[in-house]
Amino acid sequence: MTNTALDTFPKLIRRNAKERPDVPAYREKEFGIWQTYSWKDVYDNSRSFGLGLVELGVTRGDAVAIIGSNRPQLYWVFSATQSIGALPVPLYQDGVADEIQYVLAHAEAKVVVVEDQEQVDKVLSIMDQCPTIKYIIYKEPRGMRHYKQPFIKSYTEVQEIGQALDAKSPDFFDAECDKAVSDDIATLLYTSGTTGRPKGVMLSFRNMVEAGRLSVEFENLTEKDKVLSYLPMAWVGDHLFSYSQAATAGFSVNCPENAETVLTDLREIGPTYYFAPPAIFENMLTQMMIRIEDASKIKQKLFHYFIDVAKKCGVEILEGKPVPLMDRLKYALGNALIYGPLKNTLGFSQIRVAYTAGAPMGPEVFKFYRSLGVNLKQLYGQTESCAYVCIQNDKDVRPDTVGPPAPGCEIMIDEATGEVLYKSPGAFVGYYKNEEATKETKTETGWVHTGDAGIMTDDGQLKIIDRAKDVGKLRDGTLFAPQYIENKLKFFPFISEAVCHGNDKETVTAFINIDLEAVGNWAERRGISYASYQDLANRDEVYAQIKECVEQVNQDLAIDSELAGAQISRFLVLPKALDADDGELTRTRKVRRRIIAERYEPLITALFSDVSVADIQSEMTFEDGRKGQLKATVKIADATTYPAMRAAS
Question: What is the pLDDT, as a whole number, of residue 437?
């Protein structure tokens, strides 16, 4: 039974401060040294900052925006804000000014708490369009010496203001904290905006606390667990793992020094509990393969031999299933020589449970990690569900499903459309200032539309096919599920992104983005010089390599009874990487198909014709923020397709 006295995060954090005051709660690597903060530190810092906000005029119901990398001080803003009845609103730190302006204006943010000078400048550039903003508070003082505006204050200055109030009114903070109840809105999280403007998802304390409690119980998480917090704070998955579950179980949240040191920090921390979207696991696999290509011949042979052993029996050993003695001995030797050192290099040695979610993961990548002994599982959820709908059970993990409904959840498939609907303790209250969208998404009986097409297996496992609006058919009636095909393509180290086309067409075609590091490394070892991404992407030798990858996917599709007719007939390599700054991807790296269809329409037309080259002119954003025009002539290549065949039994 839920403890009603612990129905909000400030109350949970206060409990942690009393019951486990010295247990590490948050760690941050700064200047190469790990700084540790206990649960008592979290409570004390949240208290002083929350009271400081009160002195700045923040009242119950006001929105406090949070922009920055994963930092303990920014996580404390959540609890500080919630303690005084205000509403925390995290934003993606890499969002361009226009994206940030929309959310700040829509949420009517009164205070914006940012990490550093870069974010301060970004907010200053759009303040005239956000009249509700009264204060900007920065965490990092570097570079802020000459900012003299009275509405710009440092994090420590606000805490000092709060400490003065606390000295005068020592009972005020806890009294404010106790006013909150479970049905109050805990946070406002904005969707990634795949099809349009982001929507503000209102999540109550009941939603987030229950989702955290049930998932902690499901995985038996305790204060001894460790998680690496490096994904955007504005993303619901990070909010579940690094805030909700951490406050519930009392485990430690570890923040890396910066984006470039994540893998190094991952090895140093050795988390027991880990989450990454498919793109991270795919990138790790790519890096692995690059390093193997640079290794000696004998090391390459050893690696590939034992990886084949792992593919044969690794998953069965992980799941405790019967495996022949000789295979077990080979696997044990492989673990000593290859798998163990490899997991140690990745920082995976201590992982007890790992999740992936946010997008479908290719079954080949999924099986690869599990075959090494990593307990990788798929999690299914949305911002609207607190990322809590389905969780795979340790004893029944499959690459083609996302598991059964999580404890307390229900799943239903719409018979007419094939869309997945769910009921969940984490099901959102509604969209902020958008009743119409709320009614379209959440029924009066509590069922929430996901927008995903899926099926339930006979034994109650959910299988996600694709986004419902993206699933289509070729002219001959063959099922066209673009994400499924794209994930197969992205298994190959040379391919970082793919976008397939084919709905209502006779064949399927594809845009390919090459992985610059993997392909660049391959080119350098073969003496192939290149001047830029565009130059490398257009090389005949690169096209030949991508053609092999595409045709391997076609061979795999040929044994799929539903998708054998959806093999890729033609492809091209885009002259630029798809980019969130150009609006082609969301901040969570989901493809914005409508924008890509509009921007690259000449190339799509060319793919479905018989021409071998096509011209494209497109706007792109450079790393320094400047806009420019990309003009290129792109080659189009044919790929071999294969007759449908039965899968080997």
Answer: 94
Please give the residue that has the higher pLDDT: either 619 or 592.
592
| Cα distances (Å, whole numbers) of residue 27 to 41, 151, 181, 237, 256 | 11, 30, 29, 19, 8
Task: Provide the 3-class DSSP secondary structure of residue 492.
Answer: coil
The residue extents of the domains of the chain are 4-214+234-246, 278-426+438-467, 472-638
Task: Tell me which CATH homologous superfamily contains domain 278-426+438-467.
Answer: Luciferase; Domain 3 (2.30.38.10)
- The whole-angstrom separation of Cα 278 and Cα 357 is 7
Token pair for 424: 């969940």
pTM, whole model, 2 decimals? 0.84
What 3-state class would DSSP assign to 143? Answer: coil
CA distance 406 to 398: 15
Tens digits of per-residue pLDDT, 320-346?
Answer: 999 999 999 999 999 999 999 999 999
The CATH class given to the 4-214+234-246 domain equals: alpha beta
Model pLDDT, residue 625: 58
How far is Cα 622 from Cα 626, in angstroms, rounded to an integer? 5
Task: Say if domain 472-638 classifies as CATH 3.30.300.30.
Answer: yes
Q: Each residue of 193-242: pLDDT tens digit?
A: 666 688 999 999 999 999 999 999 999 999 999 999 999 999 999 999 99
CA 269 to chain centre: 20
CB atoms within 10 A of CB 635: 15
